Please model this.
Amino acid sequence: MTVKWNVLIADDEPAARRGVRQLLAPFPEFAVAGECRNGAEVLAALDVSAPDVVFLDIQMPGIDGFEVIRRRSVERMPAVVFLTAFDQFAIKAFEAEALDYLVKPVSEERFAATIKRLAKRLSSSPRSTRDERIVVTTTRGAAVLHLSEIDWIEAAGNYAQLWIGPRNYFLRESLQTLEERVTKNGFARAHRRALVRLTAVKELVRTRAGAMIAILNSGARIPISRRRSSSFSAAIHDLGSEK
Model:
């Protein structure tokens, strides 16, 4: 069976990480993309390796498992399976939308049930289609961005500037070339220098002068050119009709 999904293992105990690897061995559709010893490493690895699943310990040095999710946000986390020695955090774990909560030591039977749930979730989730990803260079190395998490893109000379909330990344590619790649993934041209992901739009408003502005969930305000206001608002309307 070929690999379908990548896994990140996060635990401060080497023996626990080896244990997860051993439990995963009978399931070749899941491949380990990396291991982390603490929350800071998890946050960095989520950007670089873009895993489909993270087996996440709760009590880790510095940033714990719940804080990882809070900083990253539930919406931008992969499928989460908590793996911990404590059972008192189960309610909080499911409030964080974890797929499962495993208490160490985990039996092979219990782990297999989790894998079955994971496979079902990932097979039916839009994430399983592996929406197109863009690799950008940062001061910490390469980072992999999902188009589904990019709010908007603007032209910046010979580069495109990709915005995810308040964070931004530069890609050496023209906006015109990039537009051909992203429009099929739900982006629309807002004006000559900007592309916006339609699902990131919270509302469209008009200024007193009649100009249209797209207000994104992140709080960013993107002006829509008069020439594109009709097609942009129609695309937003069509998106709403599909829900």
Remarks:
- The radius of gyration is 20 Å.
- The longest helix spans residues 108-124.
- The CA atoms of residues 161 and 170 lie 5 Å apart.
